[in-house]
Specification:
With about 280 residues, this protein is of the alpha/beta class. Helices cover about 40% and strands about 20% of the residues. A 6-stranded parallel β-sheet has the order 6-11-10-9-8-7. A 4-stranded antiparallel β-sheet has the order 3-5-1-12, covered by helices on one side. Strands 2-4 form a two-stranded antiparallel sheet. α8 links the parallel β8 and β9. α3 runs antiparallel to α4 and α6 packs across α7. The protein is elongated and about 70 Å long.
Length: about 280
């Protein structure tokens, strides 16, 4: 993450996380360390995967103290292995102990998403299909989750409700049908906005094509129905497939002529990648 993004969007979120963990004081640390004492931690990788969030990890400690030094051996996007020394951090031991859990939470969570995303991207190699995330992110974690998807080789779908128009089942029902929803969106939206619509059957596909949707999302369709939908669309709209797509079943879509696959699993089901801060030394 770049410095500007950190300053505008990230710092406040990290501070909120720190306040959650330290509402008034770190009573354990303060009970055993009374004065400033310089120390060093080693950051160790405990599983194979893709590193993501190292700048967020660092920023967590920087927000606790102006006197923090890092010697980092890897960058976001690097493949890391169990036992790798990711780097060292030097600061007042009170800073190290107080920020340890929050910093590791970010690093483990983001690296887990990047690792899971990378594994799904690998399964789509040479297909031409782009893997997208969704808005199924942990509240107040979206900027971290979606960044981690990009680090893992995936792509970001719309970032929030202001970022793009996606007419889902409840919007369609409220509008009175696929065609009506698309026409209402076209009349309201700026001309630079694409109109995407979610469909669940072939009749809805035909209606979306007739109304000239820009992107048609095929939701929870079996592969055979997706192939029929692709023939109906016939290049008149971009095609996205979605609905409970995971690492275990994504390959069944690889040979179908679609443009995108979106998966909520990237951000809501990725297991963490384990790291630890060990070998505390007094300096």
């Amino acid at each position: 993450m770049d410095l500007v993004t950190n300053k505008i969007n990230v710092d406040d979120l990290i501070i909120m996380a720190l306040k959650e963990d330290v509402p008034n004081e770190d009573i354990t640390t303060n009970s055993i360390i009374k004065d400033r004492t310089l120390g060093k931690f080693t950051l160790i990788c405990k599983q194979d995967g893709i590193l993501a969030g190292i700048e967020v990890f660092k920023r967590t400690f920087e927000l606790l103290s102006n006197e923090v030094q890092f010697n980092i051996n890897y960058k976001d996007g690097d493949i890391v292995k169990k036992g790798n020394i990711i780097g060292e951090i030097i600061s007042d031991i009170r800073v190290l102990l107080t920020g340890e859990r929050t910093a590791l939470n970010y690093l483990q969570h983001m690296s887990g998403i990047a690792t899971y995303t990378h594994s799904m991207v690998k399964l789509l190699e040479e297909s031409g299909i782009k893997l997208l995330d969704t808005r199924k992110t942990t509240p107040n974690m979206r900027i971290f989750d979606k960044y981690a998807v990009k680090v893992g080789g995936g792509h970001n779908h719309r970032y929030n409700l202001s970022d793009g128009i996606l007419l889902k089942d409840n919007h369609i029902q409220a509008a009175g049908g696929v065609g009506k929803a698309i026409n209402l969106a076209k009349a309201y939206a700026p001309f630079v906005r694409k109109i995407e619509v979610e469909v669940e059957n072939l009749d809805m596909v035909r209606e979306a094509v007739q109304a000239k949707a820009d992107i048609i999302m095929l939701d929870n369709m079996a592969p055979d129905m997706i192939k029929e939908a692709v023939e109906i669309i016939d290049g008149r709209a971009e095609i996205e497939c979605s609905g409970n797509i995971t690492k275990e079943n994504i390959e069944k879509l690889k040979g179908i002529k679609i443009d995108y696959i979106s998966s909520g699993a990237l951000t809501h089901s990725a297991p963490i990648l384990d790291f630890s801060l060990k070998n505390l030394q007094l300096l």
